[in-house]
Amino acid sequence: MAATETAAPPRAARPARPVRGAWNPNRRPKSKTLTLVMTLGLVYSLLPLFWLLVNSSKTQANLFTTNGLWFGGHFALLDNIQQTLTYNGDEFLRWFGNTMLYVVVGAGGATFLATLGGYGLAKFDFPGKRGVFALVLGAVAVPSTALAVPTFLMFSKIGLVNNPWGIIIPSLVNPFGLYLMWIFSRDAIPNELLEAARVDGAREWRIFFSITLRLLRPGMITVLLFAVVATWNNYFLPLIMLNDPKWYPLTVGLNQWNAQSQTAGSTPIFNLVLTGSLLMIVPIMIVFLVMQRYWQSGLAAGSVKQ
Amino acid sequence: MTVLSADSPPRSRKSELRPRRRRKWTGWGFVSPFLLVFLFAMVAPVGYAIYLSLFQDKLIGGNRFAGLANYTQALTDSQFWTGFGRVSLFLVVQVPVMLILALAVALAIDSARLHWAPLYRISIFLPYAVPAVVGALMWGFIYGNQFGLVAEIGGWFHTTLPNPLDNTLMLPAIGNIVTWEYIGYNMLIFYSALRVIPGELYEAAELDNASQWRIIWHIKLPALRPAIMVATVFSIIGSFQLFTEPSVLYFLNKDVIGSAYTPNWYAYSLSFNGQEYNYSATIAILMGLLTVIVAYVVQRIGQRKGA
């Protein structure tokens, strides 16, 4: 895959070049059996998404009466979208805006902090560096769900709950991102270049903004991608942190709609839950497909022991 | 955690760098913004939760230091241990199934014997893009009795399929959602590792006329070792921290999920429905501790076998 190689900084994944020289696997005959078996996997992966698309195009009444795996009755996708966007005083749009705020500030900030830190750890010696390094590596394995309750307890003590900062501040910390940026910085920034710039009298911050950021761009995109997905999908923390629907991100809002639909006595809005889910996954899927190659370089750098 | 550690920690780079004295503290300038937020949003909450877990809020006497009383209570709390047993069972069954499937898919895509391999790679990775909440909502509807697909498929064959959301099938049903979400992610971890196997190894194998199975066994699997370790450790953590799926499915069958289906859900319920903050903090800390211990032990075993 040529694309992978351009995505990752040259030696990010491993010193060995991921090129299979003379040995050309494409000469081997394709297997029909293998393709058939893999098609089962493909169907398993895509069927629920297809189901969602089909059922987002139905009116609530038709959901219950038509074949779940095919379009049926009135094609109501556009109606559903319109209803989803305007239901209960445009709250879906409000939640979308909140999610965007958490993604842009949270994931953007996390990427910036991780880049600064990764570069600092890779290219400078300073007192206490090994301690910092150990701390960050240890934190990579701490899952955000394990931190949700403790973070909530502390933030409620200091009055940071029920406002956007309660979501944004924890999203700014991304130890895995810092670890990736450490690898990328180590491999993609030649020390000679930094030395040359210093000899020319450039200040460290100028070097960072004019040289480092440019060289680290592919790595930063990878880290940003991971951070965007993490914040876009963030659920436990906002669920516990926010009780005012005004600040909900889409994840919590949609589940709230579902809860309303499943509760006896309140208005069921299944069609809106389905359409809202569809609207929520479309943007992130586009990001996924466009940014594919960056995933691979990130996962390779993160999982392959150097 | 040394899963992600590299053999070349910062020190080994010292000789190349030779920083001048005036730059001695410059590194701190770059690292400190991250570190400040890290201390505030990660270290401090854990510290505060540990602190809270040492207190009890009593109707008489108010909030007072209780030593390890909360922990001794948790150790005999059957709700906690039932939840812990459930996620352990989940781990023992779901994680191997998912990882073996992911491995098989990665090997198939890497084998060059598959038609349209990129199509399969992208499609199977795609569910990972779906937020866990949406994945759980979607599958919940598919399982559900309102306009669920499962019941409908049963109808096509004029039978009634068992309800996936009842007491016995809830855990496998959640396992299926998690497997669906993460096969592609793990597959890509394995696939990325397969892509960096040097071509010479394959050339040598081809000269020896090695069969595909032998190549998989002697070249690919050993090369995948570190990637498998990383995926396993992350899957263990994911299982022990299970929360989103049960919390979404809760609305579909409140009796089965209850308030302590998984330890995380229990900690949440204690905080939210019970306002038992001290005990909730205890459960969160205890579960975090158990997760680290199990992940560490599994990783040690994996390393020893690899040596």
Automatic annotation (TrEMBL), chain A:
Residues 1-27 are annotated as: Disordered. The chain crosses the membrane at residues 34-54, 100-121, 133-153, 165-184, 215-237, 269-290. The keyword Nuclease does not apply. SUPFAM superfamilies: MetI-like. Keywords: Cell membrane, Membrane, Transmembrane, Transmembrane helix, Transport. GO terms for cellular component: plasma membrane. It comes from the Bacteria. Residues 96-291 form the ABC transmembrane type-1 domain. It is a multi-pass membrane protein. Residues 1-22 have a biased composition (Low complexity). Pfam families: BPD_transp_1. PANTHER family: ABC TRANSPORTER PERMEASE PROTEIN MG189-RELATED (PTHR43744:SF12), ABC TRANSPORTER PERMEASE PROTEIN MG189-RELATED-RELATED (PTHR43744). Belongs to the binding-protein-dependent transport system permease family. This is Carbohydrate ABC transporter permease. It comes from Actinospica acidithermotolerans.
Automatic annotation (TrEMBL), chain B:
Keywords: Cell membrane, Membrane, Transmembrane, Transmembrane helix, Transport. GO terms for biological process: transmembrane transport. InterPro entries: MetI-like, MetI-like_sf, UgpAE/MalFG_permease. It is found in: Cell membrane. SUPFAM superfamilies: MetI-like (SSF161098). Residues 84-298 form the ABC transmembrane type-1 domain. The keyword Cytoplasm does not apply. Pfam families: BPD_transp_1. It is a multi-pass membrane protein. One of its GO terms (cellular component) is plasma membrane. The chain crosses the membrane at residues 28-51, 87-107, 119-142, 169-191, 223-243, 277-298. The keyword Cell membrane applies. Belongs to the binding-protein-dependent transport system permease family. PANTHER family: BLL4140 PROTEIN (PTHR43227), DIACETYLCHITOBIOSE UPTAKE SYSTEM PERMEASE PROTEIN DASB (PTHR43227:SF8). This is Sugar ABC transporter permease.
